[in-house]
Each structure stands twice: as C-alpha cells, then as structure tokens.
C-alpha cells in the first residue's frame, strides 16, 4: 500500500476508524502517499484516527482532498493537534461532527485550503473554536482558544465557502480571522437559523485591534449568497468596524433574512436606524445581479446622495420586502444636473413581487438612465401606482414621453392602484412586443391601447403550408358522416387505410419540394400538381 494515493470506502459497516495507531506497525508503512480520502455511508465509523494523540498527528499531512458523506456516528473528525497543511478541498455532508470543527491549532495548519463545503451537520456550532478550553482529542463549545498572533495568515488560499442546513451553527469564522481571507471569491450560507453574524466574536484583546480596521476585508469576494438565515443581524458584531469589498462583488443574493438591517457591515456614529441604504458602505461598482427576498428591515435599496451609478448591474429582483418604500431614494438637486451619470446603464431586467408599501420605483429624472432596460415585471404590490414618480416642481407632464428604447416586455399583475408608467406621460417603447395587464383596475387607457396594439402586432398569420396531421380529422368527417370516439384506443380499419394514404401524399409532397430546389418550381405549383 506504499503507493496508494486515493482511497474510496463505501458502506463498510465493520469499520469504526480509518487509522488505528494501537496496532504494531511503523507509521511510514501506513499509506504514506495518501492524497485523497473518500468516505461514504460508513454507518459505524466514529473517528478517523484512533490511538494516543501524539501518534496520530501526522496521518493526514499529505492529504489534499477529504470527502465525507453520510457518516452519522463520526464525531471526532480532526484530532486537536493534527496537521492539514496540504489539504485543499474539504467536504462534509450529513455528518454528526462535534460542536466545533477545527481547534485553533488545526486551523493554523490549513494554509492550502481552497474549498470548504459543509452540508447537513446538525451538531456543528462553530467552524473554528473561539472560546473555552481545549481538552482531550476532540473539540467542544467549551474550548477557550487564545487568538493567534498571526491570525491574518489563516486560510489565505480559501476561495469558496459553502454552508447548507447546519441548524445549530452560530458563526462561520471569528472576526479576527477575516483579514486572512484575501482570496475568498464565493461565500454561500443557507438554512442556518441560529446564525447571528457571519464573522463572530474574538477575545477582547484581538477585538480592540479590529475595531478601527482600515484594510479592506474580503477584497476579492465576487459572490455573496445569504439564504434563510432567520436570526442573521449582520456580517460582524456592531462593535467591529471594517471596510468591505467595493470593487469585486458581482452577485448579491439575500433571501429570507428578516432581521438583516442595511447597512449590515458598519454602524457609524450618527447612523439612523430608520434609513437603510444598500450602498452606503459598499459602492457596488462591479455588481451584476442583485436578488433580495424577505428582507423585512429594508426600506430603500439605493440613494443618489451616496452613489450616482451602478455601472454593471443587469438583473434586479426584489420580493416580499414588506417595508420597502423606494428602490432609489432621490436627491432632487440632481434633477437639474445636465451631465448626470447614468444610474443603471446596463440594467436589463427588473422584477418586483409582493412589496406592499412600494408606491413607485424611481424618481422621474431617472427615465433617461435606463437605456438597456428590456424586461419589467411588477406584481402583487397593493400601493404601487407608477414606475417613475415626479415631484410637484416637475414641468407639465402631459407633453413628455417616457422613452425606453430597449424595452420589449412589461408584465403588470395584481396591482389594484397602479395607474401608469408615469402619471400624465405617454410611454414610447419602439421595441415593445408584450404588454400584459392582469387585475389592475385603475390602469390608464393609454396603457390599454398599447396593450391592444402589441397583441395585434403579435398576431401574424402564418403562410399556408399543408399540414396533413392537422387536416386529417376534418377530411375524415367529410368522408364519414359520424364522429369517432376520442377515447377509443384502437383505430378502425378504414382509418388505418386513410393514414397510409396520407403518408403517401406527404411523401409525394416532400419529393416535389425537393425537386423544386433544383428547378424553378414554386410551392403553389407543387400544390397544383397534388
């Protein structure tokens, strides 16, 4: 077994541990080159290594991939002082685990870790220990871990974190470790109802050094997805201040986080809890997709006072945000700026669903700032009246047009107070192909007219082409003066003969069309011949 590099074990019910150092053999003779270890449905596996701690520390030094699935009795995964300096991929699914996955000393060795996936580990409370005392060979929530002096160098290669259905999870990493996550690209956390902060508390000494952190945290984070985290308050405790990524985030998806206030990352002196603007802390210059669902504290997404452009945003979806009043809170002084920057130069699709305090989406002056908008879907918003709102000081609106040059689809459904795209203005969308209006009793007649025009334009009679299958039933009715039962499973003999005749006719038609490709014969000529 000296050359064994990959080991797969599946449904081996007799195995209780992978390595047992109590046997009399040399460590070098025990799979010295093991690089990948896959364990699946090992019903009686309770620990990876068994024996005195000092004899099992080096078993996984060369391991690069560890994948454990459905090992319900496995609770001691990593002995307290084991070394995982070459581990790049760690995946745990449906395992019991301990309350703490990594002790501080084990976390120190994870310098090469790139992917961390933890699914359905119901006992897990902390991925890295943060408080308590270390005892024995396993980790418990009572551990007290002194924060390492070189915490900034922990997990410096970690790129992808995926946490799913860990019902008792309370934190992902201590806040003092976040500065080491310089390569983190994707952070996805779903179904962790006890999670309050993504980055939890450290001890007081370390915390004080992070309260006035000037370095940008998670500088390469591109994807952030937070879903069904019912107790999530923020990314870090309120007494921590940090600068978060502004030039890297592309996809932001927040679903089912009712306690999450915005901004979540930094509470500044004078911060008004009644106002929540998504980009007061993040400039979101690279954001391409934004999805928000069930964010009860959200009142406004963006503010023109703090940021005048979201240059890369293409997809915006907002659902079940019951306190949402505005998509963009406008500074009226910007209305008169002649060279105002386009706010959404690439935005293509807007979807709003079940936001009952929302009365409008944008201030009127933003009409010209959506040059690529192609799809607008609004539904189940009882107070929504218009898309673009205008103030008392705006000029006479009856003489103005709402020009949306790339708009192709509008869907309006279950909007009892919706009147128009903008009160008193006429929509001008030369590419509009679909305007669907359903259960919107107050809709302006001008929109109804556009709806009829798009429906008429969509109805284009197709050129005649014989369809033997379509016309078969009609000819049968002409030839036989009675109806055939549609529920019959077997066709009578005369229908079978007709089918054969139809097949011959269709084959003849195809042959004539093939001839038409090589000679000057039209489809009309072919039909005349037939």
TrEMBL record:
Per the record, where are the segments of Acidic residues compositional bias?
487-507
The segments labelled Disordered in the record are 483-510
Q: Does the keyword Metal-binding apply?
A: no
Keyword annotations of the record = Plant defense
* Domain Disease resistance protein At4g27190-like leucine-rich repeats span(s) in chain numbering: 1-81, 141-261, 336-442
* Record keyword Plastid present: no
| Protein origin, superkingdom | Eukaryota
* Pfam families referenced in this protein's UniProt entry, alphabetically: LRR_RPS2
Q: Which PANTHER family match?
A: NB-ARC DOMAIN-CONTAINING PROTEIN-RELATED
Q: What's the name of the protein?
A: Disease resistance (CC-NBS-LRR class) family protein
Organism from which the protein derives? Trifolium pratense (Red clover)
């Amino acid at each position: 077994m000296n050359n064994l590099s990959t080991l797969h074990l599946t449904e081996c019910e007799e195995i209780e541990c992978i390595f047992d150092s109590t046997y009399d053999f040399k460590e070098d003779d025990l799979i010295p080159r093991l690089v990948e270890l896959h364990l699946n449905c090992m019903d009686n596996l309770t620990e990876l290594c068994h024996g005195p701690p000092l004899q099992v520390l080096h078993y996984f030094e060369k391991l690069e991939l560890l994948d454990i699935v459905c090992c319900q009795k496995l609770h001691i995964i990593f002995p307290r002082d084991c070394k995982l300096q070459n581990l790049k991929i760690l995946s745990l699914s449906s395992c019991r685990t301990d309350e703490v996955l990594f002790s501080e000393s084990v976390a120190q060795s994870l310098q090469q870790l790139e992917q961390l996936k933890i699914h359905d580990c119901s006992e897990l409370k902390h991925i890295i220990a943060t408080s308590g005392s270390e005892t024995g060979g396993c980790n418990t929530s009572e551990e007290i871990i002194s924060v390492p002096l070189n915490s900034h160098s922990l997990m410096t290669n970690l790129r992808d974190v995926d946490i799913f259905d860990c019902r008792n999870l309370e934190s992902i990493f201590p806040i003092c470790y976040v500065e080491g996550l310089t390569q983190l690209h994707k952070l996805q956390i779903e179904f962790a109802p006890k999670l309050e902060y993504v980055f939890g508390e450290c001890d007081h000494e370390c915390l004080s050094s992070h309260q006035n952190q000037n370095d940008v945290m998670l500088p390469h984070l591109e994807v952030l997805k937070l879903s069904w985290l019912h107790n999530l308050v923020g990314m870090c405790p309120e007494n921590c201040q940090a600068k978060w990524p502004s030039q890297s985030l592309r996809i932001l998806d927040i679903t089912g986080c009712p306690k999450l206030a915005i901004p979540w990352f930094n509470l500044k002196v004078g911060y008004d809890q009644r106002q929540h603007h998504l980009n007061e802390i993040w400039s979101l210059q690279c954001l391409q997709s934004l999805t928000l669902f069930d964010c009860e504290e959200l009142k406004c997404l963006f503010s023109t006072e703090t940021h005048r452009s979201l240059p890369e945003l293409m997809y915006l979806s907002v659902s079940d945000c019951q306190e949402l009043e505005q998509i963009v809170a406008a500074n009226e002084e910007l209305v008169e700026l002649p060279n105002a920057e386009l706010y959404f130069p690439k935005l293509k699709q807007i979807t709003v669903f079940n936001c009952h305090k929302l009365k409008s989406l944008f201030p009127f002056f933003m009409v010209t700032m959506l040059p690529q908008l192609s799809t607008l879907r609004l539904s189940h918003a009882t107070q929504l009246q218009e898309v673009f709102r205008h103030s008392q000081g705006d000029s006479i609106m009856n003489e103005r047009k709402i020009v949306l040059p790339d708009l192709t689809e509008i869907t309006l459904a279950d909007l009892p107070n919706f009147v128009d795209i903008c009160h008193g203005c006429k929509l001008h969308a030369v590419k509009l192909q679909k305007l669907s209006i359903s259960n919107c009793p107050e809709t302006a007649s001008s929109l109804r007219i556009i709806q009829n025009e798009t429906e008429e334009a969509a109805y284009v009679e197709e050129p005649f082409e014989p369809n033997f299958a379509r016309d078969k039933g009609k000819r049968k009715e002409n030839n036989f003066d009675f109806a055939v039962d549609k529920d019959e499973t077997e066709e009578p003999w005369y229908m079978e003969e007709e089918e054969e005749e139809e097949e011959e006719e269709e084959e003849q038609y195809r042959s004539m069309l093939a001839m038409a490709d090589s000679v000057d014969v039209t489809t009309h000529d072919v039909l005349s011949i037939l």
